[in-house]
Amino acid sequence: MANHTPAAFENQPMWAGGRSPFNVSYGKLMMWIFLLSDAFTFSSLLVQYGAQRFSNVESAVTTVWPDPASIFNHFPFMHGLHLPLLFVSVMTFILILSSVTMVLAVEAGHRNSKKEVQTYMIYTIIGGVAFLSCQAWEWYTFIHEGARLYGNTFGITEQGYEHLHSVSFGNHFEWALGDRTDGPVPFAALFFIVTGFHGFHVFSGVVINVVVYIMTVRGVFERRGHYEMIEKAGLYWHFVDLVWVFVFTFFYLI
Amino acid sequence: MDFHVKPGEYDAINYIPHTESHGTKELWRTFWLLLGITILDFVIYFVMPATGLRNFIFIFFGLVKAYYIVGAFMHLKHEKINLALIILVPTIFIVGLIMGLLYEGNALTWVK
Fold this sequence. Notes:
The complex is a heterodimer.
Chain A: H1 26-54, H2 68-71, H3 86-110, H4 114-144, E1 155-156, H5 158-166, E2 180-181, H6 186-217, H7 220-224, H8 228-253
Antiparallel strand pairs in A: 1-2
Chain B: H1 9-13, H2 25-47, H3 52-73, H4 81-88, H5 92-111
Helix pairs in contact in B: 2-3
């Protein structure tokens, strides 16, 4: 790294005051700043979703925003059953669990325990891949049901609404003729854009975790004397979990 | 990046504050809390009718979860206060954006 530094700064400390005023390293501080800017990106997407949804609350029946329970009610290997919110709760559980293994890896890094860091990083990577697989299945099912970027067939008529709410959790459910109609166009597009953007973050997180895992195995951090890189990867990973909390709340619960 | 850094060389350029483990007790407690709130979300979804109050509860629970993820998992609770402030204070703009665009969204219903 030293050979990339301009001559004037060579052998100078990173912070002119000799230490970071925030008591974190430059890399960690910049990760925080990056996450703040990423929070703005995600919130602008979610706020756009909120505005679109808010503008479709009380108009004619056909433009009423689709009820998420009527769309995301599938579960793998349980075809045709009405299981709203169950699959996405499992996904949330997977992400929370992988967040815990990540933070355990960070904690192991503080004790310079290479073996434990490796174990927990593997768990975290498995969790990330599992989440992405779940999301792929969710997208596949959604598209199979007719979701497109440029249209929405999930508008629900009054008859469909009554039909849906007459079916209890876990029972067989199938749409009848006249239950569904064209709904507000941005519904599916916003779902794809926001969950896609989040999924891409998860994917990047998995890639970062794999890189960090390989560096751990090769003993880079052991030679360096600290496992701070795990903390930086961890910050990013927890941020992905944080975003999911709000995606879960706004797209599925409300 | 040079992967083969000699011991101490990296630290001379990048100041790395000494960190030590606080143990795993707080982390597991946070995990059970997050899991509990998510289960509560699930239960409320089926027990309560879809009203503004229910939405308020969901958003409140979301903020509680966010507090624990950022505070405990991302360790912000234990960082220096000025770091916490430069990260948290700018999120005021998000609140402004939410209020502005909900107002606009409401206005759109009249246009339609």
